[in-house]
């Protein structure tokens, strides 16, 4: 069957652990992210729901005039409140609680650490399909039991209405509650009337949680009786009932349930035949829930564990030892590109599963290619659930349920898969641990690595952070006294394959020699050679920070977004200019808006221009371009990669996307068009990011039989990040970079918190930012005096400083001015607590003046 579902859902779902005392009251965090509601509220658990409510359940609870979604964070036998004033839980929204006690506790930790509301942390843990949707109903005021406020004073007397009003009231009264949109369908002309009735309080609006659970149901056929009797029964059928007889014999041989549609498709029996047998009591037709499975149509050839290389054995032994002892250890697996980290992950997972425990594998969203998924599915089959943003909502919801129902024991997914609701977690793997996509940029601004370590500690589980270019922060944690991470190194590629030879090309020299093309002579020749030998090339154009802006050559004017202080990006295909922050699109100017000159043109090298130039230099060359424009469509990313893998392209040209995780045997050349584009960003990690990107992309070359070659074109050939990358020298880079960080006072030598303020009026935002900084500094002064008075222990290690406020590097986005403060600290200082308290003092301003304050703990982006 070509269907997209697999694996039956358990038809007999049992209540949680059966009725149990102590579940009479539930503590619920409701879906209102505000300071006043950032605490649990007590509710009564009605006896009929007792068996279904657990810590981590999603429930619908009355809250003022509305019904809200909430999460049960505790259960108790008694309440500190007056029980008569408590309301009961109205609905339990899932048969299997989407979270568990450990995750509920983790949300508490997140809310403290990342300075966010608990509900925000809880919501971040569940798939989008489970986020609350609300529906508005109308009800007759006097009957909306407890939901409604009484009509405003004096108006109760005005209830008598027109005949139209009476008709509406009668209709609503008869139905109880009516969805608002159904009301408007029924009484299309009554909009204004309805509004007045609501205002007068004749009707009230009731908001409820809309149940969006969308488990898929399919009709299944199965034997009603003991299948062994079916052969005998089939003998009793009339001679003409050939199909019926065949079907019975089928079930006698294969008694497991079969979807009705599959019977008609495959065995060519009509629904009538099935029905006839069901009527005779031999077969049963039953609706069952199924899981939508994005990989159901695919079969994955089973792979066996590879014999490990010596370096792999060393790494695996350490991990295996910790797993065996159920000891919480964090390993940093530093293995060069092509050293076979994946095989170490796979065998570690195998051991974890053999111990009856569960494993989570995180990979950057962009590397969740079919190739990556296949490696895990081929080894562990149906035990693997996959979570990524390209799945439909239904598919993601079903993958999530498989975890709760214990149908899977491995989850592979992007950042948020770290919240997979396993209860016997043994191992969390984070591949490419240096990737900045593990940090969520909206609230809760968590880092998956930090969350993973927290979760693992609660389970006595092992964390493996893998990378060819570990982040400085992680690397620093592997040395020194009491180092929290343990370093495992794999310095060589498997089977003694060499790392590719890297050549640095000085673009200034090229220009001097009269070469004005974006390809140096060396890279040009190398590409030509590959075309000749039918080998493949990967070209990286690091566009970030290298915008294709439009500038007037007469006066130097650069076309800017009128709402955001950033230059507009030129898009050649549509000949338009676009703002990457607010999406504004406008036609390209013919003359300079500032000086009227006609010498206005776009600068910079977009992927489109590189593609064009390749076409001119190498007629007939097949270029596969991969950037935000060509991959915005669903599945496009995978399609392009498959095309390249099948050798339907000579060159894979793209942005950062082409640098990661790809393992293609015929890629023997990698070219970096301009290596220094990231170096000049206002970001203390600029050198680190440059080193990582160059090392990663270089690592795509020569991974198999054929050796590889790399060209790095740059205007700053002496920069240490470029030099060390060209020699594959992580150690030397780290030493230089650590030194520079120490001198400048940046992580890992301190911790950072970025506080950003935004408002439509610049005076307002400056005032707020300054007052915030002052309060924070005063708080620290008071704390320090306290520390000093207690004792000197650890005091010299404590450090705290507030820098700014200053205008943000992008001083305005969407017409809101932005200022920021940077907090640097070290040692035992409760900065999250200080920030929470300081921010609380601004609650009124935030609400009334629409001031926005964002607090980013350990920020990855400083713009
Ligand atoms: N023990 C082994 N014997 C033979 N081949 C192996 C072994 N381990 C891994 N390989 C092969 O080596 C290649 C590189 O492995 P893998 O993709 O896991 O590298 P990696 O360390 O993840 O590199 P990168 O960081 O660049 O992604 C793969 O094709 C893999 O199948
Ligand atoms: Zn804009």
Automatic annotation (TrEMBL):
<dbReference type="InterPro" id="IPR042115">
    <property type="entry name" value="PriA_3primeBD_sf"/>
</dbReference>
<dbReference type="InterPro" id="IPR041222">
    <property type="entry name" value="PriA_3primeBD"/>
</dbReference>
<feature type="binding site">
    <location>
        <position position="582"/>
    </location>
    <ligand>
        <name>Zn(2+) 2</name>
    </ligand>
</feature>
<feature type="binding site">
    <location>
        <position position="592"/>
    </location>
    <ligand>
        <name>Zn(2+) 1</name>
    </ligand>
</feature>
<dbReference type="InterPro" id="IPR014001">
    <property type="entry name" value="Helicase_ATP-bd"/>
</dbReference>
<keyword id="KW-0862">Zinc</keyword>
<dbReference type="GO" id="GO:0006269">
    <property type="term" value="P:DNA replication, synthesis of primer"/>
</dbReference>
<dbReference type="GO" id="GO:0008270">
    <property type="term" value="F:zinc ion binding"/>
</dbReference>
<dbReference type="Pfam" id="PF18319">
    <property type="entry name" value="Zn_ribbon_PriA"/>
</dbReference>
<feature type="binding site">
    <location>
        <position position="552"/>
    </location>
    <ligand>
        <name>Zn(2+) 1</name>
    </ligand>
</feature>
<dbReference type="InterPro" id="IPR027417">
    <property type="entry name" value="P-loop_NTPase"/>
</dbReference>
<keyword id="KW-0235">DNA replication</keyword>
<feature type="binding site">
    <location>
        <position position="564"/>
    </location>
    <ligand>
        <name>Zn(2+) 2</name>
    </ligand>
</feature>
<dbReference type="GO" id="GO:0043138">
    <property type="term" value="F:3'-5' DNA helicase activity"/>
</dbReference>
<feature type="binding site">
    <location>
        <position position="555"/>
    </location>
    <ligand>
        <name>Zn(2+) 1</name>
    </ligand>
</feature>
<dbReference type="Pfam" id="PF18074">
    <property type="entry name" value="PriA_C"/>
</dbReference>
<feature type="domain" description="Helicase ATP-binding">
    <location>
        <begin position="322"/>
        <end position="475"/>
    </location>
</feature>
<comment type="function">
    <text>Initiates the restart of stalled replication forks, which reloads the replicative helicase on sites other than the origin of replication. Recognizes and binds to abandoned replication forks and remodels them to uncover a helicase loading site. Promotes assembly of the primosome at these replication forks.</text>
</comment>
<feature type="binding site">
    <location>
        <position position="579"/>
    </location>
    <ligand>
        <name>Zn(2+) 2</name>
    </ligand>
</feature>
<feature type="binding site">
    <location>
        <position position="561"/>
    </location>
    <ligand>
        <name>Zn(2+) 2</name>
    </ligand>
</feature>
<keyword id="KW-0347">Helicase</keyword>
<keyword id="KW-0413">Isomerase</keyword>
<dbReference type="GO" id="GO:0016887">
    <property type="term" value="F:ATP hydrolysis activity"/>
</dbReference>
<dbReference type="GO" id="GO:0005524">
    <property type="term" value="F:ATP binding"/>
</dbReference>
<dbReference type="Pfam" id="PF00271">
    <property type="entry name" value="Helicase_C"/>
</dbReference>
<dbReference type="InterPro" id="IPR011545">
    <property type="entry name" value="DEAD/DEAH_box_helicase_dom"/>
</dbReference>
<dbReference type="GO" id="GO:1990077">
    <property type="term" value="C:primosome complex"/>
</dbReference>
<dbReference type="Pfam" id="PF17764">
    <property type="entry name" value="PriA_3primeBD"/>
</dbReference>
<dbReference type="InterPro" id="IPR005259">
    <property type="entry name" value="PriA"/>
</dbReference>
<dbReference type="Pfam" id="PF00270">
    <property type="entry name" value="DEAD"/>
</dbReference>
<dbReference type="InterPro" id="IPR001650">
    <property type="entry name" value="Helicase_C-like"/>
</dbReference>
<feature type="domain" description="Helicase C-terminal">
    <location>
        <begin position="565"/>
        <end position="741"/>
    </location>
</feature>
<keyword id="KW-0547">Nucleotide-binding</keyword>
<dbReference type="GO" id="GO:0006270">
    <property type="term" value="P:DNA replication initiation"/>
</dbReference>
<dbReference type="GO" id="GO:0003677">
    <property type="term" value="F:DNA binding"/>
</dbReference>
<dbReference type="InterPro" id="IPR041236">
    <property type="entry name" value="PriA_C"/>
</dbReference>
<keyword id="KW-0639">Primosome</keyword>
<dbReference type="GO" id="GO:0006302">
    <property type="term" value="P:double-strand break repair"/>
</dbReference>
<keyword id="KW-0067">ATP-binding</keyword>
<dbReference type="InterPro" id="IPR040498">
    <property type="entry name" value="PriA_CRR"/>
</dbReference>
<comment type="similarity">
    <text>Belongs to the helicase family. PriA subfamily.</text>
</comment>
<keyword id="KW-0238">DNA-binding</keyword>
């Amino acid at each position: 069957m070509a269907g997209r579902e697999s694996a039956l859902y358990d038809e007999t779902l049992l209540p949680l652990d059966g009725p149990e005392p102590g579940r009479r009251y539930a503590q619920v965090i409701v879906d209102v992210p505000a300071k006043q509601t950032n605490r649990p509220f007590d509710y009564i658990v009605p006896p009929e729901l007792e068996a279904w409510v657990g810590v981590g359940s999603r429930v619908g609870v009355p809250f003022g005039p509305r019904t809200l979604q909430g999460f049960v964070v505790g259960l108790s036998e008694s309440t500190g409140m007056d029980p008569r004033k408590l309301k009961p839980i109205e609905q339990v929204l899932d048969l299997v609680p989407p979270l568990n006690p450990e995750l509920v506790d983790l949300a508490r930790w997140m809310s403290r650490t990342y300075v966010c509301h608990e509900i925000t942390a809880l919501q971040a843990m569940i798939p989008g399909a489970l986020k609350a949707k609300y529906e508005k109903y109308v009800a007759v005021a006097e009957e909306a039991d407890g939901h409604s406020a009484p009509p405003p004073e004096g108006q109760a007397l005005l209830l008598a209405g027109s005949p139209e009003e009476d008709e509406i009231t009668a209709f609503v009264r008869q139905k109880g509650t009516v969805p608002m949109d159904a009301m408007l369908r029924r009484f299309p002309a009554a909009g204004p009337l309805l509004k007045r009735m609501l205002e007068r309080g004749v009707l009230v609006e009731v908001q409820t949680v809309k149940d969006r659970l969308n488990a898929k149901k399919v009709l299944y056929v199965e034997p009603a009786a003991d299948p062994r009797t079916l052969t005998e029964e089939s003998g009793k059928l009339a001679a003409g009932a050939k199909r019926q007889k065949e079907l019975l014999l089928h079930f006698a041989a294969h008694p497991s349930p079969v979807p009705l549609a599959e019977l008609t498709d495959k065995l060519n029996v009509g629904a009538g035949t099935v029905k006839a047998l069901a009527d005779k009591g031999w077969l049963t037709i039953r609706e069952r829930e199924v899981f939508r499975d994005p990989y159901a149509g695919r079969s994955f050839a089973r792979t066996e564990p590879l014999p490990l290389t010596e370096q792999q054995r060393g790494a695996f032994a350490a991990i295996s030892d910790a797993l065996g002892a159920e000891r919480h250890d964090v390993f940093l697996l530093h293995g060069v590109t092509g050293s076979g980290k994946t095989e170490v992950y796979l065998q570690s997972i195998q051991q974890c599963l053999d111990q009856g425990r569960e494993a989570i594998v995180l990979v950057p969203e962009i590397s969740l290619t079919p190739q990556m998924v296949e490696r895990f599915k081929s080894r562990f089959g149906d035990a693997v659930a996959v979570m990524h943003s390209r799945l439909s909502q239904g598919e993601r919801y079903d993958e999530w349920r498989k975890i709760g129902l214990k149908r899977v024991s491995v989850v592979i997914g992007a950042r948020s898969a770290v919240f997979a609701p396993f209860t016997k977690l043994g191992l969390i793997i984070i591949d490419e641990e240096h990737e900045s996509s593990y940090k969520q940029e909206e609230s809760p601004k968590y880092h998956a690595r930090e969350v993973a370590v927290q979760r693992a500690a609660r389970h006595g589980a092992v964390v493996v952070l893998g990378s060819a270019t570990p982040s400085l922060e992680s690397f620093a944690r592997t040395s020194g006294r009491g180092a929290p991470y343990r370093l495992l190194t794999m310095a060589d590629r498997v089977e003694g394959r060499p790392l590719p030879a890297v050549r640095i090309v000085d673009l200034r020299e090229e220009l001097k020699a009269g070469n004005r093309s974006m390809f140096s002579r060396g890279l040009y020749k190398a590409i030509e050679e590959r075309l000749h030998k039918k080998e493949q090339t990967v070209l990286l154009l690091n566009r970030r920070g290298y915008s294709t802006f439009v500038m007037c050559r007469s006066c130097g004017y650069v076309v800017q977004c009128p709402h955001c202080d950033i230059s507009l990006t030129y898009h050649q295909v549509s000949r338009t200019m676009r703002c990457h922050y607010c999406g504004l699109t406008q036609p390209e100017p013919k003359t300079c808006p500032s000086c009227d000159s006609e010498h206005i043109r776009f600068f910079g090298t977009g992927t489109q221009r590189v593609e064009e130039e390749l076409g001119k230099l190498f007629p007939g060359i097949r270029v596969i371009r991969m950037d935000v424009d060509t991959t915005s469509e669903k599945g496009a990313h995978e399609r392009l990669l498959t095309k390249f893998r099948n050798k339907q392209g000579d060159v894979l040209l793209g942005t950062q996307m082409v640098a990661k995780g790809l393992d293609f045997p015929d890629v023997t050349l990698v070219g970096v068009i301009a290596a220094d584009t990231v170096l000049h960003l206002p970001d203390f990690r600029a050198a680190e990011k440059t080193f990582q990107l160059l090392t990663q992309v270089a690592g795509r070359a020569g991974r198999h039989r054929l050796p590889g070659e790399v060209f790095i074109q740059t205007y700053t050939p002496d920069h240490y990040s470029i030099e060390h990358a060209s020699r594959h020298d992580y150690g030397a880079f780290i030493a230089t970079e650590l030194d520079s960080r120490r001198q400048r006072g940046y992580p890992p030598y301190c911790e950072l918190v970025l506080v950003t303020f935004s408002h439509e009026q610049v005076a307002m935002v400056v005032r707020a930012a300054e007052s915030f900084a002052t309060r924070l500094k005063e708080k620290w002064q008071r704390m320090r005096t306290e520390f000093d008075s207690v004792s000197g222990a650890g005091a010299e290690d404590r450090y705290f400083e507030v820098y700014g406020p200053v205008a943000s590097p992008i001083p305005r986005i969407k017409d809101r001015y932005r200022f920021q403060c940077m907090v640097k600290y070290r040692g035992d200082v409760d900065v999250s607590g200080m920030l929470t308290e300081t921010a609380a003092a601004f609650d009124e301003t935030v609400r009334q003046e629409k001031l926005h304050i964002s607090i980013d703990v350990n920020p990855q982006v400083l713009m």
